[in-house]
Amino acid sequence: xxxxxxxxxxxxxxxxxxxxxxxxxxxxxxxxxxxxxxxxxxxxxxxxxxxxxxxxxxxxxxxxxxxxxxxxxxxxxxxxxxxxxxxxxxxxxxxxxxxxxxxxxxxxxxxxxxxxxxxxxxxxxxxxxxxxxxxxxxxxxxxxxxxxxxxxxxxxxxxxxxxxxxxxxxxxxxxxxxxxxxxxxxxxxxxxxxxxxxxxxxxxxxxxxxxxxxxxxxxxxxxxxxxxxxxxxxxxxxxxxxxxxxxxxxxxxxxxxxxxxxxxxxxxxxxxxxxxxxxxxxxxxxxxxxxxxxxxxxxxxxxxxxxxxxxxxxxxxxxxxxxxxxxxxxxxxxxxxxxxxxxxxxxxxxxxxxxxxxxxxxxxxxxxxxxxxxxxxxxxxxxxxxxxxxxxxxxxxxxxxxxxxxxxxxxxxxxxxxxxxxxxxxxx
Length: 428
Fold this sequence. Notes:
Blueprint: H1 30-41, H2 47-67, H3 77-88, E1 95-96, E2 103-106, E3 109-112, E4 119-120, H4 125-129, H5 143-162, H6 195-211, H7 213-228, H8 233-236, E5 249-251, E6 257-262, E7 268-272, H9 275-287, H10 315-335, H11 339-345, H12 351-361, H13 367-374, H14 379-383, H15 388-398
Parallel strand pairs: 1-4
Antiparallel strand pairs: 2-3, 5-6, 6-7
């Protein structure tokens, strides 16, 4: 286990030339590499999916080649189980403490990055803000990551079967995945902002926009569109597959406004635009010196770069702008003695805005409408945001007592913790 792996698969931008400069541990593994490379190339339509698939299949190849010293064609069910256990506790020289690019550019050459590791130890956002740093010995693979690992490997093996490189899917033969993945009685709670936190965040954005409109009218609009239309950050920033433009807001023959976007799985959807969201759009466009509403021909970027021309393609500046609002809101909440709200907000991410918007709308709109606007594949996903039953369940338990009162003699109305058995007359 002392062998430290070197990266195999480059970024989506360079993947098509990857085979020209990759260094394999042995020539006998070239077929493995080329078939898996073809598998990854079929997922270049979505950056998030590509990165997830690359991460897990690359780990599998490294483990199979360096630890087991055999090609993936020789892997059996028991091997996959060993690999999952290995992924839960990889050797320390396979673990890094920061995300690094796999390859670096040196002149015209792409070279393996010596700082890259297959696994990365992480810490929570709150811990990092408090000065903590990731530690290799604290690396842990979450339950969600293990579940995703099984799904990705199964997809890989099915692809290799279709390509006639394998004859069986070893993941499908694992009958007791519960050994690795715990089953939940209910879905994990949705991470979102309370109304008090959301109002504080909105107020922070409004203050920033008043103080520096050139910079922060953008912040205000981004904040509102992420909440008001449940957008993911990947749906707001430009990419090779989608560039959000002003005319993605369009009016139909009934006079109703819709916003078109492309989400996970490269699926296009239309989102109903509320009057409040339209007002936000009007204010944003006026700050840019544009007309109130976009025309069909207006293909200018929805979110222009802060500096330079063209659309904002890097999600990092968007995250920084939203984080600034979170930080200001947390400071204001702390100042007003809402300490618990402030501490909770410290751990919030941009994606919480989508969760918050869905959670609030599903209280007042038909769930099917929210489902379609959110791009959920089924109503079961949307149902996770309905917490009426959870509220009722909590309230019914709130005043349970640990020490029930003893019943008084002759008073059947007092609480009695004993079971009364009614005697019946014998049947003649």
